[in-house]
Write a structure and sequence with these properties.
The complex is a heterotrimer of chains A (322), B (310) and C (343). Chain A is an alpha/beta fold and 322 residues long. Chain A has helices at 52-59, 82-91, 109-119, 126-139, 156-168, 186-203, 214-220, 238-243, 248-256, 262-267, 298-302; strands at residues 8-21, 24-37, 41-45, 67-72, 75-76, 92-95, 174-178, 206-211, 223-228, 231-237, 308-311, 314-316. In chain A, α3 (109-119) runs parallel beside α5 and α5 packs parallel to α6 (186-203). In chain C, 34% of the residues lie in helices and 22% in strands. Chain C has helices at 48-55, 83-89, 101-104, 111-120, 127-140, 146-150, 159-171, 189-205, 217-223, 241-246, 251-259, 299-303, 325-331, 338-342; strands at 4-17, 20-33, 37-41, 66-73, 76-77, 94-97, 177-181, 209-214, 226-231, 234-240, 309-310, 317-318. Classes of the chains: A alpha/beta (322), B mainly alpha (310), C alpha/beta (343). Chains in contact: A-B, A-C, B-C. Chains B and C meet through loops of B and α12 and α13 of C.
């Protein structure tokens, strides 16, 4: 990626989203700061329960943070008036994980794709609306005969394309993709990733690409943020995460992914983390990863590390990283 | 092993033209959701017969009175309490009125009440349940507690009270009274379904597209509850028919000379021992209608249950 | 020569649906040797789960879905057994672990009792002996604090622990074959790594053979000795793990390998993707089922179904016309990588 300083589109400043649960407060997102620039793709990677989906929903204004700020083009999204709020829903869209649950089973594909346009009354005359539906369908590689069909007639990959067309219909500036490929077959995953890349080249929107799959996210992201228990532990340019990662959790995560080659697998040194991810309710003091970290020292158990820049554009939250 | 020896065509090992950029055609037969439901429904013979009987009943209440020359209110004092015969097919009552005509005329009233008094409270209940389930929070608590209280008292008592207030007699009051008491069940069950559906991604998708609450409730949530609610609706028709008959029987329903099935049963009940046919025919009508709607509802439930569908 | 524990021959399974008969499994044969792990790889709907369920006797000839074939296990044909005889084998000589342990475990019973009951169902033993056995198994699968965790209910355990409990239940009767249907798909990567290590460890410690069903090429690379690649109800390629990964000969296998980016390789601008979708098995194509998606397709591919052609490596075969001797004589061997340059 050429290093042109693009204007920030979305800024998260120390965002905290908590839930009340039995036995305490679940700190799903616990002080995340992140900047998404125009037209870039940020990969948000982590295991289940790390808060990546909650962060996505916070950005979409579906969940209200208890602390911090979410700024869209410099404006706080929770200070919007009614008009700006409606405007915001046009500019920030979402693509879902489950291609079966994300389409209304009773609406034909055309109506599903056009829902956003109908909500915002973008096309008064029916013909223009119809033309727009066909244009969107062809953009995502579906054809015009599909507009009158119901979702259950489509395969998972095709449904995901419909979901993408729906998100595109309002010409958003930012799309939050919540595990958009993890429910698909491998050969179809590659199709969808390629489609998302193509659309970004043509339309220039930014993506927040939420996933647990470190191998696919590399293909699409400019930068990758690794999350663990509500915090970003490392953020860097995509290749740096793979080639010069610093946080022990990132290392463990990468090492846990099996490589599709038995000869390599036989000789590969792997870090297998012991234990499970602790519950995000009532976190212990210090670094959240300390309990599973092979290098944890006393300082890690007492003092919570903060993100600090160790190379330009490469931030790590670990006391030991240099 | 035949193929191994089979000769090859000269161009067999030439490359095919690159696959045209066609999207996979959908080869399976096209079925919409409701077509699929209908297909499963058809397998249930009892339900299909019941549906046919209901259709026949509707045809008869519309055209039955036109099939002979009598009308439902004119008396013929020369023919009192006649048994069924070739002139009066179902006989006559104690004022010499033709029972054939009165049964179908009464059926028209009874079925109209059944239909409206089922659909109107259903719609009210759906909207209230939809709002309650979608918004949740204190509004939901308020509505649900209100329903708990209202449902604690038997609906018949309300109905009798309301009929006393509105004054009994007209078909409209009967429908209004039934609507005011019938929405709670539907609201409760719609709310339960809405709570399930609103967690699904397509509802979140509507939200992220900026759809207002009414849009989501009316366009997304309620239509998706309908499939399941339709069984409840079908099943509640028989009880409405029964209520109408019952209210008319105790003198709070439709007043004479307008006939309804309940009204006919009431009038004939006095002379049941002497002229049983006057009593049995409308009773049978009520019974058959209730049975058929129940059986259709049963068939629908099986057809709509996705787990049972192949 | 190692002995075959399970030998599935020419299995044909179809399901009758309103739209027509779905030919889910079309003449599939595979076998498992003692102490061996095989991987059956393919996308959803390719028939891999159906084949395995049939091999376990869960689809029978009596309900009409199994149209042909044999499943030989310990001297018996599973497909000919009565339901009662199959129940004696399942959970005892053959057992299975699933993708989602939460739906598999009984939520109202402590997991310890569920494990002991799995044992007592097939063995005459006292509760104490069964408990003893359960503890041993839990130690074998290295569950932390086995005594305490046995008293817990499924919802009190984490996903990885539930998966371990399910593996313990499957192993307590020392089965000859363990079927694992996407055992790690629902787990997080770090937990997946633990479970894969555990299963590889079990392979060394017990005599159980493992049949692994998955769509994840990385997982098979780590676990399987031999691999069957399935597509549209057929086995399109078979070989030992090194052959499949290093000398694959079927374009579908190439596609599967290419569409997963490898962490030890640099990013490509565009991911290789297989265009289109698998064929509808209600009306499978006359020729090769992959022809419509294959960039190496030839005229013959749409005319005739290729049979399995033997290749020089050990037991390696592929059902592709590119491997036919006639083709090789004319054009030479086609290996992975050449297709992409060509395309």
């Amino acid at each position: 990626m050429p290093e042109i300083a693009k204007a920030p589109l979305l800024e998260l400043k120390d965002v905290k989203t908590f839930f009340k649960v039995q036995g305490g407060i679940l700190k799903a997102v616990n002080g995340v700061s992140l900047t998404v620039r125009q037209g870039e793709t940020i990969g948000l990677v982590g295991e289940s329960g790390c808060g990546k989906s909650t962060l996505g929903k916070t950005v979409l204004r579906l969940l209200k943070p208890v602390g911090g700020q979410v700024l869209f083009e410099g404006e706080d999204i929770w200070a919007f008036d009614r008009k700006r709020r409606k405007e915001y829903t046009r500019q920030v869209q979402m693509i879902f994980q489950d291609p079966y649950a994300c389409l209304d089973p009773l609406s034909v594909i055309g109506d599903t794709v056009a829902e956003g346009m109908d909500v915002h009354r973008m096309h008064a005359d029916k013909q223009a609306r119809g033309r727009e539906i066909l244009r969107l369908l062809s953009d995502v590689g579906l054809n015009s005969s599909h507009a009158e069909r119901f979702p259950h007639e489509f395969s998972g990959g095709q449904r995901q394309r419909v979901g993408i067309a729906r998100a595109l219909s309002l010409q958003p500036r930012l799309i939050v993709c919540d595990e958009p490929i993890s429910a698909l077959d491998v050969s179809i995953q590659a199709q969808v990733v390629n489609l998302l890349k193509k659309l970004q080249r043509e339309m220039g929107m930014a993506y927040i690409f939420i996933t647990h799959d470190l191998s696919m996210v590399r293909q699409i992201s400019d930068r990758i943020a690794v999350m663990y228990l509500g915090n970003i532990v490392e953020i860097a340019n995509s290749e740096d995460i793979y080639l010069s990662n610093k946080h022990p959790y990132t290392k463990a995560l990468l090492s846990a992914i099996p490589i599709a080659d038995p000869a390599v697998e036989r000789t590969r040194e792997r870090i297998v983390l012991s234990g499970d991810v602790p519950s995000p309710v009532n976190l212990p003091a210090g670094c959240a990863f300390a309990g599973r970290c092979p290098h944890a020292c006393d300082r890690c158990r007492q003092e919570t590390p903060v993100l600090r820049e160790i190379e330009p554009g490469h931030q790590v939250a670990c006391h030991l990283a240099t | 092993m035949l193929e191994k020896n089979a000769a090859f065509l000269p161009d067999d090992f030439d490359a095919l033209p690159p696959p045209s950029k066609q999207d996979a055609a959908i080869a399976r037969k096209q079925t919409t959701y409701w077509k699929d439901v209908w297909r499963t429904f058809k397998k249930n013979k009892t339900a299909v017969v019941s549906l046919a009987v209901i259709a026949l009943l509707i045809l008869m209440v519309l055209f039955g009175p036109l099939m002979n020359e009598f009308d439902y209110r004119s008396n013929d004092y020369s023919a009192l309490n006649q048994s069924p015969n070739s002139v009066h097919w179902f006989g006559t009552d104690n004022m010499g009125r033709d029972i054939w005509t009165r049964v179908w005329e009464g059926g028209r009233i009874s079925l109209l009440i059944a239909l409206l008094a089922t659909l109107i409270p259903e719609v009210i209940g759906m909207l209230i349940g939809g709002v309650s389930g979608y918004f949740g929070g204190w509004l939901d608590t308020l509505i649900m507690r209100l329903i708990d209280v209202l449902m604690g008292i038997p609906s018949l008592i309300y109905m009798i009270l309301l009929m006393l207030v509105f004054g009994s007699g007209s078909v409209m009051t009967l429908i209004v009274a039934m609507s005011l008491t019938g929405w709670m069940g539907s609201a409760r069950s719609t709310r339960g379904l809405v709570l399930q559906i609103k967690a699904r991604d397509f509802v979140t998708a509507s939200e992220t597209l900026g759809a207002p609450a009414w849009w989501i409730i009316v366009k997304r949530l309620i239509p998706n509850t309908l499939g399941i609610r339709v069984v409840g609706i079908t099943m509640s028709i028989p009880s409405v028919i029964f209520y109408e008959a019952f209210l008319s029987y105790i003198g709070l329903g439709v007043t004479p000379p307008t006939p309804s099935w309940g009204q006919l049963i009431k009038a004939a009940g006095e002379n049941f021992r002497y002229y049983p046919y006057q009593f049995i025919i409308p009773c049978a009508m009520v019974g058959i209608t209730m049975l058929c709607f129940n059986l259709v509802g049963d068939g629908l439930r099986d057809a709509l249950d996705p787990k049972l569908r192949a | 020569m190692s002995e075959k524990i399970l030998d599935v021959k020419n299995l044909v399974v179809t399901f009758d649906m309103y739209q027509g008969s779905v030919q889910a499994v079309r003449d599939v044969s595979f076998y498992v040797n003692k102490k061996e792990t095989i991987g059956i790889v393919g996308e959803s709907g390719c028939g891999k789960s159906v084949s395995v369920k049939t091999a376990m006797g869960l689809n029978s000839k009596s309900n009409g879905s199994v149209k042909g074939g044999q499943v030989l296990f310990e001297g018996k044909d599973i497909l000919q057994l009565s339901e009662k005889e199959i129940r004696e084998i399942l959970g005892n000589r053959m057992s299975m672990i699933f993708q989602d342990p939460f739906t598999f475990l009984n939520p109202t019973m402590p997991v310890g009792r569920q494990i002991t009951e799995a044992y007592l169902r097939h063995h005459k033993a006292s509760r104490r002996e069964a408990r003893e056995k359960a503890l041993n198994i839990l130690k074998l699968i290295s569950l932390p604090n086995p005594e305490e965790n046995m008293k817990r209910y499924p919802h009190q355990l984490s996903g990885g622990m539930r998966q371990r409990i399910m593996i313990a239940m499957a192993l307590i009767c020392d089965p000859a074959v363990l079927f694992a249907d996407e055992p790690t798909t629902a787990l997080d990567v770090t937990i997946q790594a633990q479970i894969i290590d555990l299963m590889n460890d079990l392979k060394a410690k017990t005599d159980t053979s493992i049949v692994l069903i998955t769509h994840d090429m990385g997982v098979v690379a780590k676990m399987a000795d031999r691999i069957y690649v399935m597509y549209a109800g057929k086995i399109v390629e078979h070989g030992d793990a090194d052959t499949i990964f290093h000398k694959p000969r079927h374009p579908y296998t190439w596609g599967l390998l290419n569409s997963v980016p490898r962490l030890d390789e640099r990013t490509k601008e565009e991911l290789h993707s297989i265009p289109g979708v698998p064929p509808d098995l209600i009306a499978p194509p006359k020729g090769c089922p992959f022809a419509a998606r294959c960039d190496r397709a030839m005229n013959i591919c749409s005319r005739r179904m290729p049979e399995a052609f033997d290749l020089p490596e050990n037991e390696h075969y592929a059902a592709c016309w590119l491997c036919h001797p006639e083709y090789i004589r004319k054009h030479g061997e086609q290996l992975r990588g050449e297709g992409e340059k060509h395309a």
